[in-house]
Amino acid sequence: MATTHLISVEEYLRTTYRPDVDYVDGEIQERNLGELDHGTIQGAFMFYLGPRRREWNIRAVTELRVQVKEERFRVPDVCILDADAPKEQIIYHPPLVCIEVLSPSDTIYGMRQRVRDYVEMGVRQVWIVDPKDRTAIVCEGNSMVEQTDGTLKLPGTKIEVPLADLFSVLDE
């Protein structure tokens, strides 16, 4: 039987991982990334959001630690933060949106756990983007709605990301 080595929050926070990892109730959990389509979509979000940051009053960041619970840190692929929120090296205030780009080895169970953590923290929406199927799932509260076209929108804000623009980079 395999044993799990638990570490403290303090040890997690003072340790550098490459790539960074999630910390869940004392356990280190590796994240799935490193493939071309994953990185391409992550970059497409940054290129799309960056020029709009002042108009939309946002900050967009990649792979930043977010403390979702006292003993739990997640590292979303992209976070959209309110520009008026405190500037934190580790995010303790809920982002507006957390974006997860699926990798082939991601599981439904694992993604549901991540979404639940973000929602319970107070994140307004979680966008799960699948580069293979060119779809997105918008998670808000207890609902998950798949979109195959149209625009990802955060109600009450100017944030809008057309899926066609996002996925077009995969054809370049």
Describe the structure.
InterPro entries: Nuclease_put_TT1808 (IPR012296), Restrct_endonuc-II-like (IPR011335), Uma2 (IPR008538). This is Endonuclease, Uma2 family (Restriction endonuclease fold). The protein is an alpha+beta fold. The protein has one domain (32-64, 76-171): tt1808, chain A, CATH 3.90.1570.10. Helix content is 26%, strand content 30%. The protein contains five helices and twelve strands. A six-stranded mixed β-sheet has the order 3-6-7-8-9-10, with helices on both faces. Strands 2-1-5-4 form a four-stranded antiparallel β-sheet, with helices on one face. Strand 7 (97-101), helix 4 (108-121) and strand 8 form a beta-alpha-beta unit. It starts with 8 loop residues before the first helix and ends with a helix. The model has no long low-confidence stretch (mean pLDDT 93).
